[in-house]
Design a protein that fits this description.
Blueprint (H helix, E strand, L loop, with lengths): L6 E4 L2 E2 L6 E2 L13 E4 L9 E6 L4 E7 L2 E7 L2 E7 L4 E5 L4 E5 L6 E6 L8 E2 L2 H11 L2
Antiparallel strand pairs: 1-9, 2-3, 4-11, 5-10, 5-12, 6-9, 6-11, 7-8, 7-10
The structure holds thymidine-5'-diphosphate.
């Protein structure tokens, strides 16, 4: 899956008159064992979440509420994904540059990550990302 680049995951959806329910579990629906989860909220709609990539961490992003756009670059391929449902996840492999923008007013992104928070795993400069990732696939 890692070599296929970012891709949408269909999350199970149990529909019920009491309220719908979705879940992710490893290994059936989540491609890695999650070590960490975080969520971003109270997001000003005009804001762009600055880009970064991870050397080793994988993640899945879900729009628990509202909508937003995730722009990705992986092995030179640029794609954009509009996330707007709690039963669709976006899998992002390591060494993927990603930027999130176009947040709706009630956007609530949930991020499941394969690793603990580690500043050393971040690539925060796009130029550095390009240098490192270009070496990897030329
Ligand atoms: P950061 O990953 O830089 O957010 P973004 O790149 O999306 O703007 O995180 C912002 C701050 O929050 C940074 O100081 C580190 C801290 N942080 C943690 O302590 N643990 C975490 O799991 C995350 C995601 C961030």
């Amino acid at each position: 899956m890692v070599s296929d680049g970012p891709q949408l995951l269909e999350i199970p959806r149990i529909q019920d008159v009491r309220g719908n329910l979705s879940f992710l579990e490893y290994p059936s629906t989540l491609p890695f064992e999650p070590a960490r989860s975080y969520w971003i909220y109270d997001i000003p709609t005009a804001k762009i979440r600055h880009g970064h990539a991870y050397y080793t961490q994988q993640e899945v992003i879900v729009a628990l509420s509202g909508s937003f756009t995730v722009h990705t670059e992986h092995m030179g391929k640029i794609r954009s994904f509009r996330l707007s449902s709690p039963w669709t996840g976006l899998y992002i492999p390591p060494m993927t540059w990603r930027v999130i923008d176009e947040f709706s007013s009630n956007a609530l992104p949930l991020v499941l990550s394969s690793g603990l928070y580690s500043e050393a795993d971040y690539i925060r400069e796009y130029e550095l990302y390009k240098e490192i990732s270009d070496c990897g696939h030329e």
